[in-house]
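TL;DR need structure tokens for one chain.
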Amino acid sequence: GSHPQVRALGEITNLRKVVDIDDAEIRICHVCEGRCEFWNGKVDIDVLRRHFSHRGPFAPLGRAISNTRNALYRHLFEQTGAQVLVDGSKGVSWISRQLRPAWKWGDISPFLLHIVRDGRAVVNSKLRKYPDRGIDEESRHWKRVCERMNKYYEQFPADCRYRMSYEELATEPEPVIRRLCDALRIEYMPSMLRYWEHDHHTTFGNTATRSLIDRYRAQFGVGGQTVAV
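>> reply
TL;DR here they are.
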């Protein structure tokens, strides 16, 4: 999301949690404090509601129309001016629903990025959050998730997919991001690695990542505001 041609959106599948709130200034951006110039300023909330809302008898019809025309992503492309949009949603069900039917994408080219993480680290993280579940339950759950993700990844067109290691990204970010840029056919830029220095408007997703952005803004007063952390 720190590349000038790319806009990271965060896990937009979670927008369904907020779109039905009756407030013109609902918090969609999880980086901005208060009103977000992008999500509350440029993005049409009605487009989001047609895609995500479960309210009222016309919600299913609205989603059907939005999905048929791929209105959500087209609107986000128009408002960002980006060449690449990154939807960080992880669920196979969500991804597969967005890609059906194939003809609706037209001149938009879906690209599947699969970031693989050591399962031991994942299970350890889950156990810290939910200690009552036990290592057996979490391990079996992670195994099922991986099997489903791997099966979906393998059936995806080979020239439209890319798999990378979370651990390699963390320890050797430059060569890993260079290879990813090559796969996406965009130019690698060293400043991408200093993502906390860039303007982001992501919704939901990793809180640790956002904390680094907040810390940088608080220290240097970036973005016209100082965020207390």
